């Protein structure tokens, strides 16, 4: 828009001059008048741009603007000297030319002093710009150090929680009587699955969800002490990941890798209870059953108990309906 109005002004100027006198009849005075008016109009239009470049330079200082102004000033003075020399030489009036020369040199020297002041401003701008850049670099470095420290703190806590989780799993045992050795650790979850499946197969109900809930309820009544601790702690690991400002998928995958197939199966049926509604949402949001073999399920239709995102990371995810951060 600024360029448009600049061109409009120049066109109006040339057109007005042509209406006053044809171009073929322009003399030196007319050309100088037109040139001065055009230069004045250009200064009016572009002064704000120049000031912006001086006050807030893009590259740290205003060397480019001051160089252009200095070049323009010396070019203008050179042109004035050339015109004066030709004019005075034609009239052999060298005394007047000497006065003219002295009158021009004083403003030139004043202008050079002014330019020296501007160069001082340039140096100050460079120092300020360098200080700002150093301050920004320091701030960025501090921010990166803070994020690195937070990530290290998170990972230390996360892997400690995983270690405690494995300790909880290893503490689970099934007493099979004096004639047999007890089953310990993750091996217990295969027996949990077998016991649930046996109860499920003996249930005459036609409602698949109720049969599944009843099978897990039977297991819960027998091993509540072990399973309650296991469920609560696993839930809190997932909650800790969700509340942290980290790449959540990365750490959920690490957690998933700790869970055996039979653990996932028991967790699958535990998540169907109303009291485990939040855990079920976490399962669907973080695809906790990505590694669950579906052929272990008591019935193939049970896949429908969860959203597809519980089994496939690429499936659309439903946002969590709750926030554990303030609880």
Describe the fold and architecture:
A hairpin with an 8-residue loop joins strand 1 (173-174) and strand 2. Helix 1 (2-20) runs antiparallel to helix 2, helix 6 (208-243) crosses helix 7 and helix 6 (208-243) packs across helix 8. The chain is mainly α and 327 residues long. It starts with a helix and ends in a 41-residue tail after the last helix. It has helices spanning 2-20, 28-55, 63-91, 94-171, 187-201, 208-243, 248-258, 261-270, 277-286; strands at residues 173-174, 183-184. The mean pLDDT is 83. A two-stranded antiparallel sheet has the order 1-2. The longest helix has 78 residues, at 94-171.
Count the E strands: 2
Termini separation comes to 57 Å
- The radius of gyration computed from the alpha-carbon positions, rounded to a whole number of angstroms, is 42 Å
Strand content: under 5%
Largest sheet: 2 strands, antiparallel
Mean pLDDT rating: 83
Question: Any low-confidence stretches, pLDDT <50, length ≥5?
Answer: none
Structural class: mainly alpha
Strand arrangement, largest sheet? 1-2
Instruction: Please count the helical segments.
Output: 9
Gross geometry: elongated
Helix fraction?
A: over 70%
Question: What's the arrangement of secondary structure elements?
Answer:
Blueprint: H1 2-20, H2 28-55, H3 63-91, H4 94-171, E1 173-174, E2 183-184, H5 187-201, H6 208-243, H7 248-258, H8 261-270, H9 277-286
Antiparallel strand pairs: 1-2
Helix pairs in contact: 1-2, 3-4, 4-6, 5-6, 5-8, 6-7, 6-8
